[in-house]
Amino acid sequence: MPQLPSALDHFDEIKAQFGNRQIALFLDYDGTLTPIVPDPEKALLSETMRRLLDRIASQRMLIIVSGRDRANVADKVDLPELIYVGSHGFDIKGPELEEQHHAGIDALPALDAAEQELRDALADVPGAQVERKKYAIAVHYRQVAPEQQERVKQEAEQAAQRHETLKPAGGKGIVELKPNYDWHKGKSIRWLVDTLELSPEEMLPVYLGDDLTDEDAFREMRDWGITVLVGDHGHETAAQYGLHDVDEVGRFLQLVLEEVEQTATSHS
């Protein structure tokens, strides 16, 4: 995959696109704000990153977009004033939203059934984790022995095939079962932009993400926002810029904060 232009080295180019518009930051959690770790519950936001997010959010719109349950990622970030998009866009809530979006409710019975099927099928596979979210099931195989990983992936894909309201999706060390509904992170962001009436003349969205599921957002926003891939997921990307890791994300957000505060000072 060709190397993307660094969002740090090209920050002046990115900043020039702000113009007189405010920016809205859309940030993935795992792999973007926190490093990927074997146990998802140990992916904890650093206090330095939390303070940085809090300072940005005090002046600009900041939305967390995650494959995690909305309540789970909201608890991890612990900044109640933000808008949280959970389950890859299937669950959206925030203080500025009068309306919540709950796509995929019809798939809940199938998710309940598939969860039990997978727990039974993978009970004898060391390291396999079946994580139930409200609107998805994540089957983790990162800690499974290499010779058994294919079995785990097949079990997950077969479970999805048994339920017409579900579909499988790959990720970093996981297979997820999601509602078989034409909805994803990109469409959830479009819904948010429309619902909040964010005019492209007044607001520029900036999206940072590290996973294949973020590609939906990159494609959706390519013509009207700034998109940044964190790390390398090993596939072609629609992102415009790149950052190597969570540390570089912190440096990029610090630059954004400095620009936001400088703009606020010049207008005061």
UniProtKB/TrEMBL annotation:
Q: What is its EC number?
A: 3.1.3.12
Keywords of this entry: Hydrolase, Magnesium, Metal-binding
Q: Give the top-level enzyme category.
A: hydrolase
Pathway(s) of this molecule: Glycan biosynthesis; trehalose biosynthesis
Keyword Hydrolase among record annotations: yes
* Cofactor dependence: Mg(2+)
Q: Which SUPFAM superfamilies does the protein's record reference?
A: HAD-like (SSF56784)
Record's Pfam families?
Trehalose_PPase (PF02358)
Report which reactions are catalysed by this protein.
alpha,alpha-trehalose 6-phosphate + H2O = alpha,alpha-trehalose + phosphate
Q: Enumerate the InterPro entries for this protein.
A: HAD-like_sf (IPR036412), HAD-SF_hydro_IIB (IPR006379), HAD_sf (IPR023214), OTSB-like (IPR044651), Trehalose_PPase (IPR003337)
GO MF, one term, reads: trehalose-phosphatase activity
Q: Which GO terms describe its biological process?
A: trehalose biosynthetic process
Describe its function: Removes the phosphate from trehalose 6-phosphate to produce free trehalose.
Similarity section: Belongs to the trehalose phosphatase family.
- NCBIfam families attached to this UniProt entry: HAD-SF-IIB (TIGR01484), T6PP (TIGR00685)
Supply the name of the protein.
Trehalose 6-phosphate phosphatase
